[in-house]
Amino acid sequence: MTSLGMLQLVSPALPVGGFSYSEGLEWLIQKRKINNKSTLCEWLKAELLRGQIRIEASSQSLIRDSLDKWQSTNEKKAIEDLVEWDNWLLALRDSDKIRLQQKQMGQSLIQILLKLGCHLPDETKNFSWPSAWGCGGLFWKLSKIEVIEAYLYSWVANQLSAGIRLMPLGPTEAQQVQYSLLPLIESQAKELLSQKPHQLWTGDVGATIAQSSHSELYSRLFRS
Questions:
Q1: Does the pTM of the predicted model rise above 0.85?
Q2: Tell me: domain 24-198, CATH 3.40.50.620, correct?
Q3: Residues 77, 172: contact at Cβ < 8 Å?
Q4: Own/partner pairs, 166-173, CB within 8 angstroms, 24+ separation
Q5: Could you give the CA distance from residue 174 to residue 170 in angstroms, rounded to a whole number?
Q6: CA–CA separation, 174 and 74 (whole Å)
């Protein structure tokens, strides 16, 4: 049975501001590179298979190891490892727009966790989104595989939410896409659980171009 903590972590009601970003999807739709349910689904599949999201998801296991070590020993080295992971993941993002998004969402999630009573090192207050997500997994006592699955699922859900507002895509169609991607999310999570993040590659140049070009749109619904 899926834990209730996992449901709260992936809930769109979690006030981290993710709803205000499209991560380049708005640019892709305006340029007609994505124009229907099918092309959107293929884009999401491509990102799950070779996008930056994979490296962030695979890092969750090692972030959790550092968090567990800090919680049990309070070692300074564990905190230093967490900060190093956060800096590395943020540096991998080619677009300054996405780096700002990652920092804003991460800091919002950390604030929520602190107000819910989660005890975290002071260094986590400036964590970006992937690292903050790992802290959320620790707080809700999720297993490593749950944290990774939830990270991938939440990303897809946010992209579909943006798609509904940007193109002729109804909520039912979005649910069909989400459902069709569940096996891929599950298989990717199992694979990434044992993968070393530093050895993974990405092939999402198109996503980087879209993210970087979003602020140049004449009109836009989402934040850059």
A1: yes
A2: no
A3: no
A4: 166/22, 166/25, 166/26, 166/29, 166/221, 167/29, 167/34, 167/35, 167/36, 167/40, 168/36, 169/36, 169/37, 169/40, 173/37
A5: 6
A6: 44
- pLDDT tens digits, residue range 78-132? 899 999 999 999 999 888 888 999 999 999 999 999 999 999 988 999 999 999 9
Q: How many other C-beta atoms are found inside a 10 Å radius of the C-beta of residue 135?
A: 23
Distances in Å between the alpha carbon of 12 and those of 20, 47, 172, 223? 12, 21, 17, 17
Strand partners, 21: 223
**Token reading at 48:** 């799950």
Q: Is 21 helix (H, G, I), strand (E, B) or coil?
A: strand
pLDDT tens sequence across 19-39: 888 989 999 999 999 999 999
Q: Is 32 left (phi over 0), alpha (psi -120 to 50) or beta?
A: left
Could you state, in order of their start, the residue ranges of all structural domains in the chain?
A: 24-198
CB 110 within 8 A of CB 120: yes
